[in-house]
Every structure is written in C-alpha cells, then in structure tokens.
Amino acid sequence: MLKEFKEFAVKGNAIDLAVGVVVGAAFGAVVNSLVKDVLMPPIGVLLGGADFTNLFIVLREGAQPAPYASLAAATDVGAVTLNYGLFINAIVNFLIVAFALFVVVKAINRLRRPEPAAAPATKTCPFCKTEIAVDAVKCPACTSVLDA
C-alpha cells in the first residue's frame, strides 16, 4: 500500500494538481485584494460613498443597542448581522475569477486546436490517374476534358 501511495504521489497528475491548488490560492488572494482594495472603493464612491464591507442588517442587537458604526463594531458587541455587503464583495470576487479562468481556458483551447487543413492544390485525373492542378479543366497527360 505504501508503494502504491508513493507511485500516486509522484505521478505528474498529482504534482500538477498540487501546483494548481497552490497557484489558485495565491491567485485568489490577488483577486481578493483587487476587489477589496482597488475595485470596490471607486464603486462605493459612485454609489454615494458606500463601503460594501460595512453594509449589513442587524437581526439581533448585542450588548449595546444599535446603531453600529461598522460591522466590526456590531460584531464586537455580539450583534447578529446579515452581511450583504460582504456577499456583494464575494460575488464580485467570483465574477473576476470566473472571467480570468474563462480567458485562460479560451487561450489554452486556442493553442490546442489543430490548424485547419489547407485546401488541396492538386487533384487526380479520373481517366489516367495523373496528379494535376486543382483548377485544371484539361488533363495535360491524357488531354481529357475534366468536369469543373
């Protein structure tokens, strides 16, 4: 059993999968930063200065009564909140990751796609079986008139 595990662990597919998971985690961190630090602040400004991380609904007040200045303040006093702003951030994260993966897969598929076969430059004379130009109307070997 140990030998089988060793064979599995050092196979190219298992190593490729491990590398993919590590790169994916790093990519996720970059996308999270892109959304949180670059995209959402201007969107918040365009929508009237809203900070999406602090959009929440209080379901049950904590030790201190509402209103709470931020999600962190509500969490600190034990309030139960519905964090729809964080959900919006997660949706934007997902859309960016999905689009990036779409672009990568599309590029890989384009590289894998075989080149279309070129149109043949010659054809065979049906009478003498000599190779002739595809646009020939008369065979140069047997002088037969060819169908167009």
Tell me what you see in this structure.
- With 148 residues, this protein is mainly alpha-helical.
- It folds into two domains: 2-117, Orthogonal Bundle (Non-ribosomal Peptide Synthetase Peptidyl Carrier Protein, Chain A), CATH 1.10.1200; 118-148, no CATH class.
- Helix content is 53%, strand content 9%.
- The protein has helices spanning 2-9, 12-46, 71-76, 84-112; strands at 57-60, 80-82, 122-124, 131-133.
**Assembly classification:** single chain
Please give the domain count. Answer: 2
CATH class of the largest domain: Mainly Alpha
Tally of alpha and pi helices: 4
Secondary-structure class = mainly alpha
- pLDDT < 50 stretches: none
Roughly what is the average pLDDT, rounded to an integer?
84
What do we call the CATH homologous superfamily of the largest domain? Large-conductance mechanosensitive channel, MscL, domain 1
Layout: helices, strands, pairs:
Blueprint: H1 2-9, H2 12-46, E1 57-60, H3 71-76, E2 80-82, H4 84-112, E3 122-124, E4 131-133
Protein traits:
148 residues, mainly alpha, Non-ribosomal Peptide Synthetase Peptidyl Carrier Protein, Chain A, 2 domains
Task: Provide a quick synopsis of the model.
This protein is mainly alpha-helical. The protein has 4 helices and 4 strands.
